[in-house]
Write a structure and sequence with these properties.
Strand order of the largest sheet: 1-28-27-26
Largest sheet: 4 strands, antiparallel
CATH architecture: 6 Propeller
Radius of gyration: 19 Å
CATH superfamily: TolB, C-terminal domain
Number of helices: 2
Structural class: mainly beta
Shape: globular
Helix content: under 10%
Number of domains: 1
Number of strands: 28
Strand content: 35-45%
Distance between the termini: 58 Å
């Protein structure tokens, strides 16, 4: 006898399958080039940034750029968490400088601009010790080039053991500062109990000890006009937003910035987020194997619910109006299962048609 079962929906396509290291970030350029990053979390990572070329992974922009050494800490990639294509010929690479979630190597945490026309590194932004703390983990980044002389970048600090924050970078001067440092909106929800594949997600160590799994501000997206920044802690189901003008205004004391945060309601527990040109916010729900969209009027709709969506990580929208996202089984890592790695290869890069272009940064 066939019994009723859960309904799955959403037309997904497997764009690329990964049989090696676990991917996190994805970026799609305005010409359709696809880039992936592989942070060094314990897998054998041959190169931490790659481009998918003719069905294969190629180190990007070169193998040399992916071979970090003591003498090239500030100019080579150490452990990249996020890549972002800005739509105008630049791939931005966010290097945590913190393999295995260690304290960031001095000078290693950085934001790197790679020219997609020449495939060469154009500029590197490093951070002072009051911006990248010993506990900092640079997670994701968004841009607006319509303000200031060269634009601004907004980066989430998703620390597991220190204050979360939004890091603001003036791309003209390279000057950066922390906003919402340790605020409720950038901190893990202490009452949040994540449940994935029917099991509570928590740190489960080889020695049998356990502890809560808590990550600070992670997902980030920006409105099409660049005026609103959306963000969320990984350990939360809540959505928050704030005026980017407030984040940039250095005359506002940080303790007062949190007064400008707006609560956007519950959206599900998300890792990645991305904004379309129509103002639609696309978010993952890693507890429910789902992808949702939130319209500008606040209406939320689940657009994909599929057992293959095993931890939707990072999102990108291509010029083909497809939503691309990595699925990496993050919750099956050994750190959550007493040292037993439950991930099953391949990991995947999935996509689905959304009939919306990416939000412009220019």
């Amino acid at each position: 006898m066939t019994l009723p079962s859960e309904r799955y929906f959403g037309k997904l396509e497997a764009f690329f399958l990964f049989y090696g290291a676990m991917p996190t970030g994805v970026a799609v350029s305005e010409t359709g080039r696809v880039f992936i990053c592989f942070p060094k979390w314990g897998d054998d990572v041959e190169f931490t940034v790659a481009e998918i070329v003719c069905g294969t992974l190629q180190p990007y922009p070169s193998l040399e750029a992916n071979l970090a050494s003591q003498s090239t800490i500030t100019t080579s990639f150490i452990s990249v968490q996020s890549v972002f294509a800005d739509g105008k010929g630049t791939l931005w690479v966010l290097d945590t400088g913190a393999p295995n979630f260690s304290e960031p190597i001095k000078g290693g945490a950085k934001l790197v601009a790679v020219d997609l026309n020449t495939n060469t590194i154009r500029s590197v932004f490093t951070f002072t010790e009051d911006v990248v703390l010993p506990t900092t983990y640079l997670n994701d980044v968004r841009f607006d080039f319509r303000v200031g002389k060269s634009g601004y970048a907004y980066i989430t600090d998703s620390s597991t053991r220190g204050p979360g924050a939004i890091i603001v970078v003036d791309l003209e001067t390279g000057y950066a500062w922390r906003r919402l440092n340790g605020a409720n909106s950038t901190s893990p929800d202490l009452f949040f109990l994540p449940k994935v594949e029917g099991e509570i997600l928590m740190n489960r160590n080889k020695d049998g000890s356990t502890s809560p799994f808590r990550l600070a501000s992670d997902g980030i997206a920006i409105s099409p006009d660049g005026k609103i920044l959306y963000f969320c802690p990984l350990s939360s189901r809540q959505l928050y937003s704030i005026s980017t003008e407030v984040l940039r205004d250095r005359t506002i004391p940080d303790m007062n910035v949190q007064d400008h945060v707006k609560y956007g309601g519950e959206k599900g527990a998300s890792d990645g987020m991305f904004t379309g040109a129509k103002g639609t916010l696309y978010v993952g729900d890693y507890e429910n194997n789902s992808i949702r969209k939130i319209l500008p009027n606040g209406i939320m709709e689940t657009i994909a619910h599929d057992p293959r969506i095993l931890w939707p990580d990072t999102f990108a929208i291509g010029p083909d109006q497809y939503l691309y996202f990595t699925v990496n089984q993050l919750h099956r890592q050994a750190r959550f299962h007493y040292g037993y790695d439950l991930r099953q290869k391949p990991y995947s890069l999935l996509r689905m048609k959304i009939d919306e272009s990416p939000a412009p940064a220019f």
